[in-house]
Design a protein that fits this description.
Chain B: Belongs to the UPF0702 family. The complex is a heterodimer of chains A (66) and B (285). Chain A has 66 residues and is mostly helical. Chain A has two helices and no strands. The chains are: A mainly alpha (66), B alpha+beta (285).
Chain lengths: 66, 285
């Protein structure tokens, strides 16, 4: 596996986490838990943005594996 | 009219009256009744019993007697709701039996409790040594409430400083294969959600004996057929595991890359993710 595909896999997992958190935040009744889920979701979305940039950068570095 | 018809008619009338009176007197649990409630119950029952089986007695007298025995306790109850002093008089006050691990012998004698009675009641509460007790009180209804000394109290999450996610009561959303719409609405969920969850578990609603949903909208079901294994909800443990895996991956990328900006980015994000995991772990376990 190339570095590019590894990072892509991690990026996909992060997206999965973000979506799961969003469903949980929508389903949960308790306000405190809802806030915690939302807060963590924001952190995850920052990580997602960074990784997205990295994925694009790596795709440019390794065009042969695209 | 033959006697037996009279007895049937009287019984039905008295049952109806007794039922209404006891409903109106309120539904205190038997263990929470004070002496007066107890006596009232017996007398009302007695009047009904006597009048039911004796056809020669005048039913009207019975009803009058029952009415008196109903209205006085009713007034007493009303009065004790309104005034604390009156309540102390009618319901009695609690008596201190043990304070700072020392038994109050005079109070014991006053309430007619022997040492054995006290020890028995304490053993009921899993206490075998009176010096383990900080404070014990005889309630007006005859029960003993015990506050053990600090070191003898059961350990709680608060003592250990563990933060736990709050939980609300679970709702029973399926009973005997039927959907309970009100419970679903209490959780802000709908039939569509239930159908999806059941489809995920690969069971049809008719086969579900009982289905309960918790605060986070995870569904736990019990089927009529006990041979079929039902998977437990895995959404939350899976989410936590994925988060941990991603965090480890980011750390690995940070170690393996030679590009300094990428390294910094990976390190920073792996730290962020760790913070996120710490924040949410209590809610996901």
């Amino acid at each position: 596996m190339t570095v590019g595909s590894q990072v892509k896999g991690c990026f996909a997992s992060i997206k999965n986490i973000e979506a799961s958190l969003e469903t949980l935040a929508n389903k949960v009744q308790d306000v405190e838990a809802k806030n915690a889920y939302n807060e963590v979701q924001q952190i995850i979305s920052q990580i997602k943005d960074d990784l997205k940039k990295q994925v694009i950068y790596l795709a440019r570095e390794e065009p042969q594996y695209k | 009219m033959p006697d037996w018809i009279i007895i049937i008619l009287k019984s039905i009338t008295l049952i109806i009256i007794l039922f209404t009176f006891t409903k109106l007197l309120g539904s205190k649990q038997i263990s929470h009744m004070n002496i007066f409630d107890y006596i009232t119950g017996i007398v009302l029952g007695g009047i009904v019993a006597v009048h039911t089986i004796d056809p020669n007695l005048n039913l009207l007298y019975g009803i009058i007697a029952m009415f008196i025995w109903f209205i006085v306790p009713f007034a007493v109850e009303w009065g004790s709701l309104k005034s604390k002093a009156f309540r102390n008089f009618t319901e009695g006050k609690s008596t201190v039996f043990i304070q700072d691990g020392k038994i109050m012998e005079d109070n014991l004698k006053k309430e007619g409790f022997t040492t054995d009675d006290l020890l028995e009641k304490l053993r009921d509460k899993d206490i075998f040594l009176t010096s383990d007790v900080e404070f014990a009180l005889l309630e007006p209804n005859g029960a003993i409430s015990v506050l053990p000394k600090r070191e003898n109290r059961p350990l709680t999450a608060k003592d250990l400083g563990i933060k736990l996610a709050p939980t609300k009561e679970p709702q029973t959303v399926i009973m005997d294969g039927k959907v309970m719409h009100e419970s679903l609405a209490n959780l802000n969920l709908n039939l569509k959600w239930l159908e999806t969850e059941l489809a995920k578990l690969n069971v049809s609603i008719e086969n579900v004996f009982m289905g309960q949903a918790d605060n986070d909208g995870a569904l736990y079901v019990d089927l009529y057929d006990d041979k079929i294994a039902v998977p437990e909800p895995t959404e939350k443990p899976l989410l936590l595991a994925t988060m941990k895996k991603c965090q480890a991956d980011l750390e690995l990328f940070a170690l393996s890359t030679e590009n300094q900006t990428a390294k910094d980015m990976y390190e920073q994000n792996s730290k962020k993710l760790q913070v996120a995991i710490d924040k949410i772990e209590t809610y996901l376990t």
